[in-house]
Structure to design on (80 residues):
């Protein structure tokens, strides 16, 4: 209830609007294409996390974390 009140009274209108607007600074986050990319990144992180748990070696965990971070940035890149 408090969160709803905050959104209604304190936040700008574009925070609750889910439609892409051409003048919105982060309009790409509301497109279906970007949401699909986020789902792909989520799956990649889940598999990477499972691999980190299975391997349980600090070097492997660091290497997987850095590689997955790089891959996430590549997938979510704005260029086509």
């Amino acid at each position: 209830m408090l969160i709803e009140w905050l959104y209604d009274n304190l936040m700008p209108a574009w925070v609750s609007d889910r439609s892409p607007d051409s003048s919105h600074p982060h309009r790409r986050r509301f497109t279906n294409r970007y949401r699909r990319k986020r789902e792909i990144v989520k799956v990649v992180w889940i598999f990477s996390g499972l691999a980190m748990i299975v391997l349980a070696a600090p070097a492997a965990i660091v290497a997987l974390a850095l590689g997955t971070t790089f891959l996430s940035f590549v997938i979510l890149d704005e260029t086509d």
DSSP finds four helices and no strands in the chain. The CA atoms of residues 39 and 45 lie 10 Å apart. Helices lie at 2-9, 13-16, 32-55, 58-75.
